[in-house]
Amino acid sequence: MNSKTLKATRDGFGEAILKLGQENEQLVVLCADLRESLRLDKFAKNFPDRYIECGVAEQNMMGIGAGLALAGKTPFIASFAVFNPGHNLDQLRLAIYSGLNIKVIGGHAGISTGEDGATHQALEDLAITCALPKMTVVVPADSEQSRILTEQIATHNGPCYLRLGRKKIEAISDLVKTPEVKLGKAQILTEGTDLSIFACGLMVQESLKASFEVQKLGIRVEVINLHTLKPLDEISIIKSADKTGAVIVACEHEINSGFNSLVIQTIAKATGKEIQKPIAIESIGTEDFGESGKDSELLRKYGLDYLGIIKKIKLVLEKKKKLSK
User: Fold this and answer.
1) How many Cα atoms are found within 13 Å in the side-chain-facing hemisphere of 302?
2) Whole-prediction pTM value?
3) How far apart are the first and last CA of the chain?
Protein backbone atom coordinates (compact mmCIF):
# COMPACT_ATOMS: atom_id res chain seq x y z
CA MET A 1 0.00 0.00 0.00
CA ASN A 2 1.34 3.42 -0.94
CA SER A 3 1.76 5.32 2.31
CA LYS A 4 1.06 8.59 0.49
CA THR A 5 -2.60 7.60 0.27
CA LEU A 6 -2.95 7.46 4.07
CA LYS A 7 -5.02 10.44 5.16
CA ALA A 8 -7.43 11.20 7.98
CA THR A 9 -11.02 12.16 7.30
CA ARG A 10 -10.28 15.53 8.92
CA ASP A 11 -7.89 16.22 6.01
CA GLY A 12 -10.62 15.86 3.42
CA PHE A 13 -12.81 18.18 5.47
CA GLY A 14 -10.07 20.82 5.52
CA GLU A 15 -9.73 20.64 1.73
CA ALA A 16 -13.47 20.94 1.22
CA ILE A 17 -14.06 23.81 3.62
CA LEU A 18 -11.35 25.88 1.92
CA LYS A 19 -12.95 25.29 -1.48
CA LEU A 20 -16.40 26.06 -0.12
CA GLY A 21 -15.11 29.28 1.37
CA GLN A 22 -14.00 30.38 -2.07
CA GLU A 23 -17.37 29.52 -3.61
CA ASN A 24 -19.81 30.70 -0.96
CA GLU A 25 -19.43 34.06 0.77
CA GLN A 26 -22.24 33.17 3.17
CA LEU A 27 -20.27 30.28 4.65
CA VAL A 28 -18.83 31.01 8.11
CA VAL A 29 -16.65 28.80 10.30
CA LEU A 30 -16.67 28.81 14.10
CA CYS A 31 -14.09 26.87 16.09
CA ALA A 32 -13.30 26.19 19.75
CA ASP A 33 -9.52 26.78 19.72
CA LEU A 34 -8.77 23.71 17.55
CA ARG A 35 -8.28 25.11 14.07
CA GLU A 36 -5.07 23.19 13.35
CA SER A 37 -6.45 19.88 14.66
CA LEU A 38 -9.57 20.32 12.55
CA ARG A 39 -7.65 21.51 9.48
CA LEU A 40 -9.18 24.97 9.53
CA ASP A 41 -5.94 26.96 9.57
CA LYS A 42 -5.98 27.61 5.80
CA PHE A 43 -9.61 28.74 5.91
CA ALA A 44 -8.80 31.10 8.79
CA LYS A 45 -5.83 32.55 6.90
CA ASN A 46 -7.72 33.04 3.63
CA PHE A 47 -11.04 34.21 5.11
CA PRO A 48 -10.26 35.93 8.43
CA ASP A 49 -13.56 37.85 8.33
CA ARG A 50 -15.50 34.58 8.11
CA TYR A 51 -13.57 32.63 10.72
CA ILE A 52 -14.67 33.12 14.32
CA GLU A 53 -12.42 31.82 17.08
CA CYS A 54 -14.70 31.14 20.04
CA GLY A 55 -12.16 29.72 22.46
CA VAL A 56 -12.95 26.85 24.80
CA ALA A 57 -16.62 27.81 25.03
CA GLU A 58 -18.56 25.30 22.96
CA GLN A 59 -21.98 26.24 24.29
CA ASN A 60 -21.40 29.89 23.44
CA MET A 61 -20.04 28.84 20.04
CA MET A 62 -23.27 27.00 19.23
CA GLY A 63 -25.28 30.05 20.25
CA ILE A 64 -23.23 32.31 17.99
CA GLY A 65 -23.66 29.81 15.16
CA ALA A 66 -27.43 29.82 15.68
CA GLY A 67 -27.49 33.60 15.45
CA LEU A 68 -25.50 33.53 12.22
CA ALA A 69 -27.90 30.95 10.77
CA LEU A 70 -30.82 33.23 11.65
CA ALA A 71 -29.03 35.98 9.74
CA GLY A 72 -28.91 33.80 6.63
CA LYS A 73 -25.35 32.53 6.95
CA THR A 74 -24.28 28.88 6.67
CA PRO A 75 -22.29 28.24 9.86
CA PHE A 76 -19.89 25.30 10.24
CA ILE A 77 -19.48 24.81 13.98
CA ALA A 78 -16.35 22.81 14.76
CA SER A 79 -14.71 21.20 17.76
CA PHE A 80 -13.85 17.73 19.03
CA ALA A 81 -16.88 15.45 19.10
CA VAL A 82 -16.70 14.99 22.88
CA PHE A 83 -17.41 18.73 23.17
CA ASN A 84 -19.46 19.26 20.02
CA PRO A 85 -22.15 17.83 20.39
CA GLY A 86 -21.05 16.36 23.74
CA HIS A 87 -20.85 19.65 25.61
CA ASN A 88 -23.41 21.80 23.81
CA LEU A 89 -26.34 19.45 23.26
CA ASP A 90 -28.86 21.84 24.80
CA GLN A 91 -27.92 24.67 22.45
CA LEU A 92 -27.77 22.31 19.47
CA ARG A 93 -31.21 20.88 20.25
CA LEU A 94 -32.78 24.33 20.44
CA ALA A 95 -31.12 25.39 17.19
CA ILE A 96 -32.55 22.34 15.42
CA TYR A 97 -35.96 22.90 17.01
CA SER A 98 -35.83 26.42 15.56
CA GLY A 99 -35.22 24.98 12.09
CA LEU A 100 -31.76 26.47 11.64
CA ASN A 101 -29.38 25.49 8.86
CA ILE A 102 -26.30 24.61 10.92
CA LYS A 103 -23.44 22.21 10.20
CA VAL A 104 -21.89 20.60 13.27
CA ILE A 105 -18.40 19.15 12.91
CA GLY A 106 -17.25 16.59 15.51
CA GLY A 107 -13.54 15.88 15.15
CA HIS A 108 -11.27 13.31 16.81
CA ALA A 109 -14.20 10.92 17.20
CA GLY A 110 -13.93 7.29 18.23
CA ILE A 111 -11.38 5.31 20.18
CA SER A 112 -8.74 5.80 17.47
CA THR A 113 -8.08 9.27 18.91
CA GLY A 114 -5.51 7.21 20.78
CA GLU A 115 -3.23 8.72 23.39
CA ASP A 116 -5.67 11.52 24.22
CA GLY A 117 -7.52 8.91 26.28
CA ALA A 118 -11.08 8.31 27.39
CA THR A 119 -11.92 11.96 28.09
CA HIS A 120 -11.36 12.82 24.42
CA GLN A 121 -12.66 9.64 22.75
CA ALA A 122 -16.22 10.36 21.63
CA LEU A 123 -18.12 7.07 21.68
CA GLU A 124 -21.60 8.50 22.25
CA ASP A 125 -21.82 11.28 19.65
CA LEU A 126 -23.78 9.25 17.10
CA ALA A 127 -26.34 8.28 19.73
CA ILE A 128 -26.78 11.98 20.52
CA THR A 129 -27.07 13.22 16.96
CA CYS A 130 -29.12 10.33 15.60
CA ALA A 131 -31.69 10.92 18.34
CA LEU A 132 -32.26 14.52 17.24
CA PRO A 133 -35.16 15.06 14.82
CA LYS A 134 -34.39 16.57 11.40
CA MET A 135 -30.66 15.93 11.82
CA THR A 136 -28.61 14.55 8.93
CA VAL A 137 -25.73 12.42 10.28
CA VAL A 138 -22.66 11.58 8.20
CA VAL A 139 -19.59 9.42 8.90
CA PRO A 140 -17.13 9.39 5.96
CA ALA A 141 -14.99 6.29 5.45
CA ASP A 142 -11.93 8.09 4.08
CA SER A 143 -10.52 11.52 3.28
CA GLU A 144 -11.98 11.68 -0.22
CA GLN A 145 -15.45 10.79 1.02
CA SER A 146 -15.05 13.41 3.71
CA ARG A 147 -14.28 16.04 1.08
CA ILE A 148 -17.24 15.05 -1.09
CA LEU A 149 -19.73 14.74 1.77
CA THR A 150 -18.63 18.06 3.29
CA GLU A 151 -19.48 19.73 -0.01
CA GLN A 152 -22.83 17.93 -0.11
CA ILE A 153 -23.92 18.88 3.41
CA ALA A 154 -22.96 22.49 2.68
CA THR A 155 -25.72 22.67 0.05
CA HIS A 156 -28.18 20.56 2.06
CA ASN A 157 -30.81 22.76 3.67
CA GLY A 158 -31.01 21.64 7.29
CA PRO A 159 -28.92 20.69 10.32
CA CYS A 160 -26.09 18.21 9.72
CA TYR A 161 -23.53 16.41 11.83
CA LEU A 162 -20.21 15.36 10.27
CA ARG A 163 -18.07 12.90 12.26
CA LEU A 164 -14.33 13.11 11.61
CA GLY A 165 -11.35 11.05 12.74
CA ARG A 166 -7.71 11.68 13.57
CA LYS A 167 -6.22 8.39 12.39
CA LYS A 168 -4.71 8.25 8.90
CA ILE A 169 -6.36 5.47 6.91
CA GLU A 170 -6.35 4.01 3.42
CA ALA A 171 -8.51 5.38 0.66
CA ILE A 172 -11.39 3.00 -0.09
CA SER A 173 -10.54 3.32 -3.77
CA ASP A 174 -7.13 1.74 -3.03
CA LEU A 175 -8.90 -1.38 -1.79
CA VAL A 176 -11.92 -1.79 -4.09
CA LYS A 177 -13.71 -0.10 -6.95
CA THR A 178 -15.97 2.49 -5.36
CA PRO A 179 -19.47 3.56 -6.40
CA GLU A 180 -20.53 7.21 -6.40
CA VAL A 181 -20.55 8.92 -3.01
CA LYS A 182 -24.01 10.36 -2.52
CA LEU A 183 -25.59 11.68 0.66
CA GLY A 184 -28.17 9.19 1.95
CA LYS A 185 -27.13 6.37 -0.38
CA ALA A 186 -25.24 3.25 0.78
CA GLN A 187 -22.16 2.05 -1.09
CA ILE A 188 -22.02 -1.68 -1.88
CA LEU A 189 -18.25 -2.20 -1.96
CA THR A 190 -18.14 -5.99 -2.33
CA GLU A 191 -20.94 -8.39 -3.19
CA GLY A 192 -21.47 -11.66 -1.35
CA THR A 193 -24.01 -14.30 -0.44
CA ASP A 194 -22.78 -15.62 2.93
CA LEU A 195 -22.70 -12.55 5.12
CA SER A 196 -23.41 -8.80 5.14
CA ILE A 197 -21.22 -6.30 6.98
CA PHE A 198 -22.70 -2.84 7.49
CA ALA A 199 -19.98 -0.42 8.52
CA CYS A 200 -19.14 3.27 8.72
CA GLY A 201 -15.98 5.30 9.25
CA LEU A 202 -12.67 3.47 9.51
CA MET A 203 -14.55 0.22 10.20
CA VAL A 204 -15.21 0.09 6.45
CA GLN A 205 -11.52 -0.45 5.72
CA GLU A 206 -11.20 -3.04 8.48
CA SER A 207 -14.30 -4.83 7.20
CA LEU A 208 -12.87 -4.96 3.69
CA LYS A 209 -9.59 -6.39 4.97
CA ALA A 210 -11.50 -9.04 6.92
CA SER A 211 -13.57 -9.91 3.85
CA PHE A 212 -10.41 -10.40 1.78
CA GLU A 213 -9.01 -12.80 4.38
CA VAL A 214 -12.13 -14.97 4.74
CA GLN A 215 -12.56 -15.06 0.98
CA LYS A 216 -9.52 -17.35 1.02
CA LEU A 217 -11.72 -19.77 3.00
CA GLY A 218 -14.51 -19.56 0.44
CA ILE A 219 -16.64 -17.13 2.46
CA ARG A 220 -18.25 -14.41 0.37
CA VAL A 221 -18.91 -11.21 2.31
CA GLU A 222 -20.99 -8.24 1.19
CA VAL A 223 -19.42 -5.09 2.63
CA ILE A 224 -21.69 -2.04 2.65
CA ASN A 225 -20.54 1.43 3.60
CA LEU A 226 -23.34 3.34 5.33
CA HIS A 227 -21.63 6.73 5.40
CA THR A 228 -25.00 8.41 5.96
CA LEU A 229 -26.75 7.30 9.15
CA LYS A 230 -29.64 9.74 8.76
CA PRO A 231 -31.34 9.47 6.38
CA LEU A 232 -30.49 5.77 6.42
CA ASP A 233 -30.56 3.73 3.21
CA GLU A 234 -32.96 1.14 4.62
CA ILE A 235 -33.65 -0.45 1.25
CA SER A 236 -30.01 -1.47 0.79
CA ILE A 237 -29.85 -2.85 4.35
CA ILE A 238 -32.99 -4.94 3.97
CA LYS A 239 -32.05 -6.25 0.54
CA SER A 240 -28.59 -7.37 1.64
CA ALA A 241 -29.71 -8.89 4.95
CA ASP A 242 -32.44 -10.86 3.21
CA LYS A 243 -29.96 -12.14 0.62
CA THR A 244 -27.25 -13.33 3.04
CA GLY A 245 -29.20 -14.18 6.21
CA ALA A 246 -26.26 -13.08 8.39
CA VAL A 247 -25.28 -9.57 9.46
CA ILE A 248 -22.43 -7.83 11.27
CA VAL A 249 -22.85 -4.19 12.28
CA ALA A 250 -19.48 -2.47 12.76
CA CYS A 251 -18.92 1.01 14.16
CA GLU A 252 -16.24 2.73 16.24
CA HIS A 253 -18.87 3.77 18.79
CA GLU A 254 -20.82 2.59 21.82
CA ILE A 255 -22.46 -0.67 20.80
CA ASN A 256 -25.84 -0.14 22.47
CA SER A 257 -26.85 2.97 20.54
CA GLY A 258 -26.35 5.06 17.44
CA PHE A 259 -25.36 3.23 14.26
CA ASN A 260 -25.82 -0.26 15.70
CA SER A 261 -29.35 0.48 16.87
CA LEU A 262 -30.39 2.05 13.56
CA VAL A 263 -29.29 -0.92 11.47
CA ILE A 264 -30.75 -3.57 13.77
CA GLN A 265 -34.05 -1.68 14.08
CA THR A 266 -34.27 -1.53 10.30
CA ILE A 267 -33.84 -5.30 10.02
CA ALA A 268 -36.24 -5.97 12.88
CA LYS A 269 -38.99 -3.83 11.32
CA ALA A 270 -38.57 -5.61 7.99
CA THR A 271 -38.67 -9.11 9.50
CA GLY A 272 -41.93 -10.83 8.59
CA LYS A 273 -42.45 -8.37 5.74
CA GLU A 274 -39.62 -7.82 3.25
CA ILE A 275 -37.49 -10.33 5.17
CA GLN A 276 -39.15 -13.72 5.52
CA LYS A 277 -36.39 -15.63 7.35
CA PRO A 278 -34.46 -15.31 10.61
CA ILE A 279 -31.32 -13.19 10.41
CA ALA A 280 -28.22 -13.98 12.47
CA ILE A 281 -26.75 -10.73 13.82
CA GLU A 282 -23.52 -9.75 15.60
CA SER A 283 -22.32 -6.27 16.50
CA ILE A 284 -18.87 -4.73 16.79
CA GLY A 285 -18.28 -1.64 18.89
CA THR A 286 -17.29 -0.51 22.38
CA GLU A 287 -19.12 -1.30 25.60
CA ASP A 288 -17.21 0.95 27.98
CA PHE A 289 -15.11 4.10 28.03
CA GLY A 290 -11.80 3.97 26.20
CA GLU A 291 -8.26 4.47 27.45
CA SER A 292 -4.96 5.96 26.39
CA GLY A 293 -2.84 4.06 23.88
CA LYS A 294 -1.74 3.93 20.26
CA ASP A 295 -4.69 3.88 17.89
CA SER A 296 -3.76 0.53 16.34
CA GLU A 297 -3.33 -1.07 19.78
CA LEU A 298 -6.70 0.21 20.97
CA LEU A 299 -8.49 -0.99 17.86
CA ARG A 300 -6.91 -4.40 18.37
CA LYS A 301 -7.71 -4.58 22.10
CA TYR A 302 -11.36 -3.62 21.64
CA GLY A 303 -11.88 -5.97 18.71
CA LEU A 304 -12.33 -3.20 16.17
CA ASP A 305 -9.63 -4.24 13.71
CA TYR A 306 -9.93 -6.78 10.90
CA LEU A 307 -8.87 -9.65 13.20
CA GLY A 308 -11.74 -8.85 15.55
CA ILE A 309 -14.12 -8.74 12.60
CA ILE A 310 -12.92 -12.15 11.40
CA LYS A 311 -13.79 -13.62 14.81
CA LYS A 312 -17.27 -12.14 14.54
CA ILE A 313 -17.65 -13.51 11.02
CA LYS A 314 -17.04 -17.02 12.25
CA LEU A 315 -19.43 -16.50 15.17
CA VAL A 316 -22.30 -15.12 13.10
CA LEU A 317 -21.95 -17.85 10.48
CA GLU A 318 -22.30 -20.43 13.25
CA LYS A 319 -25.50 -18.66 14.33
CA LYS A 320 -26.75 -18.67 10.76
CA LYS A 321 -26.10 -22.40 10.51
CA LYS A 322 -28.10 -23.09 13.66
CA LEU A 323 -31.00 -20.90 12.51
CA SER A 324 -31.20 -22.74 9.20
CA LYS A 325 -31.77 -26.13 10.89
Assistant:
1) 30
2) 0.95
3) 43
